[in-house]
Amino acid sequence: MFSSPAPAAGGKGISKSRALAPVAIRQILECQEDILKINNIEVQVVKVLGIIKTVDIKSIKISYTIQDPTGTIEGISYLETDTDTPETVIENTYCVMIGSVRSQNDTKHIMIFNVLPVTDFNEIMEHYLAIIHMPLKANTLDSTEFEQKPIKQEMLSSYGTANEKLSDVNYFDMDPKFKRVYEVISKSQSESGISMDELFSSLTGKIQRDQIRSALEYLVGEGHIFTTIDENHFKSTESPF
């Protein structure tokens, strides 16, 4: 349903993190660079939590205005077809929004991968504690560790592992073959992700190639994975690598 994250740009220096990073809306709005950074660590996928103030549903997209104690920002998701069903998020309720930060006409917004209602209010406090914890933890790591793994998985512990995070969305309702494909992709530790040929090889005799392609299309469409160096390399949006 949602657009997939844009592939990381090439170049030297600290690698872009493809881990999910909890942030306050003000961090996004006050960022003067193209890429949001936390202590010089580049963040590609953000998680914000706040109150949905408005929901504007149109034929091809849905626009949400989300507000937390630090600011307000718009989140946009595009519908693939006219029959797509919008997420069950209503105005004046808390929700979690996951996506990438984009800028248009000098105005920042979030390109949504997933938007979910908050069902446990403990998650609100956990979110803000995680925002505080991330830069503090980053200060304890040296630059070599940053280059090897820009955002450590331990820094994201309150948000669970890749499979735990996906279960918050629809992991247990997913086709078992799609789960298997996702699990193989999420285990990749390569900066460029796993190639389609590697997927075919890993799943030989277990899942047919056309089913793997269908799984990839589904996972990209739902924002669980994205393409990296080309259209045949894939990485999980929850990957800490």
UniProtKB/TrEMBL annotation:
Q: Does the keyword DNA-binding apply?
A: yes
User: Known InterPro entries for this protein?
Assistant: NA-bd_OB-fold, RFA2-like, RPA_C, WH-like_DNA-bd_sf, WH_DNA-bd_sf
Gene3D superfamilies, alphabetized? Nucleic acid-binding proteins, Winged helix-like DNA-binding domain superfamily/Winged helix DNA-binding domain
> Recorded GO terms, molecular function?
single-stranded DNA binding
Identify the domain of life: Eukaryota
A GO BP entry: nucleotide-excision repair
Name this polypeptide is given = Putative replication protein a 32 kDa subunit
Give the organism the record lists.
Rhodnius prolixus
